[in-house]
Amino acid sequence: MNVKAQLAILVVLIGCGCNVIFLELLIQQDPGCGNLITFSQFLVIAIEGLVFTTRFFTVKPQVPFQSWIILVIMYFLVSVSNNYALNFNIPMPLHMIFRAGSLMANMMMGIVLMNKRYSITKYLSVLMITLGITVCTIMSAKSSPKVDSTKTDSENATQAEEDKFWLIIGISLLTFALFMSARMGIYQEVIYGKFGKHPKEALFYTHALPLPGFLLLAPDIMAHWSILMASAPIVLPVLN
């Protein structure tokens, strides 16, 4: 492996690690800021692509515009679902495991939609990963509920049942996003097969075209932006 490949892997690992750390810090301060985070992500990547990929739309796209529409809709739903699930008592480790555990969904979609077949080793590997995700999900649901000393036992029990209900909603959102992401990958593979691979162009259009869709979430985004601006700065122990 050459130096460039090693550097690329290192940068990806550092970027993913920092992403998880800062996301958890934000969620601890404001659990409902998922839509604001998603919008910020889409806006920044769209601006970068506008400047460096399309050069302010002076570069002709390699893939017909209409071919991106379905991909854009799927990507928008996946991103919003993943981040919105954090509103529903989803622990960060479970959120990370779900987002990284797409092998089972990809394999199922490949078998159903593209008639793919895999070796026994791959089936066993995916089964073991899926079992790990299942165990993690069950243990998250069975984790000790928070007890409020100011409430009675019956009120705490009711709150625990309510938290479990919202956890199930969050897991359902993550599961939907997982399978939608797998379907999106297959559709993207079809586009690449027809028009060739143009990852930077795909990155721009999948982030720029959904921006008007965030108008539907504008009240929520503005509310959490106000919370963000009114909050105290987060002190990082490493940088303090």
Essential attributes:
9 helices; 240 residues; mainly alpha
Write a brief structural summary.
This protein is mainly α and 240 residues long. Helices cover 73% and strands 0% of the residues.
What layout of secondary structure does this protein have?
Blueprint: H1 3-29, H2 34-52, H3 65-84, H4 92-100, H5 103-114, H6 120-142, H7 153-195, H8 199-208, H9 218-230
Helix pairs in contact: 2-3, 2-8, 3-7, 3-8, 5-7
Structural class, from helix and strand content? mainly alpha
Radius of gyration: 21 Å
Oligomer: single chain
Poorly predicted regions: none
Could you tell me the number of beta strands? 0
Secondary-structure element string: HHHHHHHHH
Which range does the strand content fall in? under 5%
Ends apart, CA distance between termini: 37 Å
Helix content: over 70%
Q: What is the averaged pLDDT score?
A: 85
Helix count, DSSP H or I runs of 4 or more residues: 9
**In one word, what is the shape?**
globular
**Biggest beta sheet attributes:** none
